[in-house]
Structures are given as structure tokens and as C-alpha cells.
Predict the structure.
Amino acid sequence: MPNEKNLLRRWLNGQVDWSAMLEQQQTEPPKAAAPYEPHWDAADARRAVRRGQWAYTTLAVASCLLLALFLLLTVANLPPYGSDSAPTVNEVAQRYVEKGTEETGAVNTVAGLILDYRAFDTLGESFVLFTAMCAVTMLMNAPGRRRVRKLDQDIVDYYQDPIIRTVCKMVIPIILLFGIYILLNGHLSPGGGFSGGAIMASALIIYALVWGGERAAKAIPAKTVRIIVLCALGFYACSKTYSFFTGSNHLPSIISTGTPGRILSAGLILPLNVSVGFVVCCTMYSFYMYFRRGDV
Amino acid sequence: MNGMFSHLIENYQACVAVVLFAIGMCMLLFDKNLLKKVIGLDIMDSGTFLLLADRGYITGRSVPIISDGVTDMAHYINPLPAGLVLTGIVVSVSVSALMLGLTIRIYNKYHTLNMDALYLIMSNRRKGGRI
């Protein structure tokens, strides 16, 4: 095998036939990856592990007991369950309950709390979900010697079963409708973006489970999922920035709170619930698909 | 001591939360399986949520959804812990998903989820051996 310098000199003298070299390189068979063989035996493992085991067990038991003891001591000093004089029932909660409907227009105080007073907190939550989705995407697609295997072959093909197929055909639209109902009624009744989004995601997950990953990936492409998540997050950030800007500068806002109790009321809470619901739905669905087949 | 026990019995929901937290902690520390460690962390999370939800309750009052135009605090429970639990659940779901992804990567690389086997593989590699 000629080294680099030698090769350069021969090429300058016109003695090198590149096409022959290229062909030679191509005909070389690609190196097969070495099959995995564990290079350890059980006895060796036991010896290595037992060395630090005793100290570890003692410390772990002690720390568990200490932790439980301290927590129980704390519980013993908490105010009694359900008391109305606990320090957590202070003027903050009172303000949220007594002025919440008037200021946000939401009948459900918790919805008004998390999507109006503390809306940036909820935006942060949505971004935590989005970041987790990005991290899982990167983990599953990271280049490495052994990429994540694509698990395309389904072990059980539920689609062949007529009972499961028929029942799912009936149940999936109902679950989706129920999720949308929870989503749209978030400011009037218990529920909201997170729970509604999770219910909608469960319908999509049942679809992917029964109809198979391939068909689900064709029906709901990865690009659509990403675009929905990004649009929902962007809408949330922009609309909340607007309302915070107008609120802190005492400017008149074009968003009115409406009549409390109507479905089209509570200003921004309804659209924010919808966008949070879409984020949660797409994130949960893509988590499932990543863990199932390594790709959305 | 007697007063402490009566307090613990009064706050038995919080005691259950502590027990859940301790169970999760024990799973984190003692279980050899990485997947079960993830489950243990989730159990710890649920103990925390139980404590938060329990702290928000006030005896004899209804959910904080304004009905019949009554906006007096004396009729509704504290809405604040509900919002905090929501935040906690979302973060817990994200963390579990991230840890499950890492677990899948580890399994694909080393074909085991046992901590001891992983430890041995790592130490062999540090000594310069093959996997």
C-alpha cells in the first residue's frame, strides 16, 4: 500500500490510474459489523458487584428510613386536613376566587388561574413538553454505532381481529369527541388543555396500536405533528405577550372577557386551552410512536 | 408523642403520600432494573401530587368553579394547589419520557437493563477491554 507522499509523487509523474484505484476500492466488500458478544461471565460479575454492595445497602436503607422519618415528622406538624385556617388559605387564593371570574371571565377558577394570572408558567410547561419531545427525537435519531432499531414488524397484528377492529372504529371517534369537549369546556367545567389533549392523544394511540405504526405514520405524518406543535406554541407566546403588554402598560385590549358562563367567553382562555391541548396531544402521540417504532 | 400520633391519623392522606414517596425512593435505590427505576420515580411523583391535592382541600367546601354567581371564598376550596399539581404532572411526564428514551438507547447498546451488568461492562471498558 503506497503512502500519501509516494502516491502524490507518482501522480505528478503521471503513473497513477485513478479509475482503476476507484474500482478497486469499490469492489472491496463492506465490513460487516461485529455481532455483539458479552465479554463477561456471571461469576466475575458477582464478585465485582458484591464488593461495593454491603456499604451501598446499608447507606440506602439508612437514607430511606431517615427520609421517611423526617417526612412523617413534617406531616405531624402540618395543619390538620381540611382546615380553613391553614396558612395556604391566604389572600392569594381569596383574590383568585373572588375576583377571578370578574377579571378573567372564566367560571372555572383553576383555568383562570393557570391560563390568565399564571399564563407564562403554563407556557413554560408547554415548552418543557416540547423540549422533552425534541430530546426524545434526538435520542432516537442520534448517530452512533448502533442506531435504534426500527421496530417495524408488529408482533401481534390487531387489525386482523374483527372484534378489536370494529370496537375501535366505534370507540375512537367517541374518545376524540370527548377530548374536544373537555378541551373547549376548560373555562366552564373541570378539564382544559392538558386533560383534553391527553384524551385526544389516547384516541390517536389506540389508532396506532390497532392499525399499525406504518398506517398511522401515513395518516398522521411527522411533519404535520411538528407544524401543529410549533404553530400552537407560537400562537400561545404571541397572544400572551400581547395581553401582558397591554395589561402592564394600561392600554386598552381588544380582547373582552365576555359573559361568564358562555362558551365563547373568557377572552384568551379558550384559544389558549385549544393550543395547549394540541401541544399535549401531539407530544404524547409522538412519544408513543418514538417508543414504538423509533420514528413518528 | 400521643399528640403526634393523633395528628398523623388526622393527616392520614399526607401519611399515604409519604409512604408512596418512600416506596418510590426504595425502588430507585434497590431495584436493579433501569425500567423499574423510572417507575419508582413516577411513584415518587404521585406521592407529591397526592400531598399537594390533599393540602388544597377544605372540609365542607365545593370545587373552585363559580356557580350561581357566588364569589365568596367561604364556599370554595383553594384553587392554587390544583394549578401546581398540573405543572408537576406535565414535568413528570416529560422527565419519564426522556428517561425512557435513554433506557431504550442503553438497551440497544448493551442489550441489558441490569445495573450490575452495566456496571461491569463500564468497568471492563475503563480497563481497556472490549465491551
User: Anything to note?
Assistant: The mean pLDDT of chain B is 84. The domain at 2-126 of chain B is CATH 1.10.287.3510 (Helix Hairpins). The two ends of chain B are 56 Å apart (CA to CA).
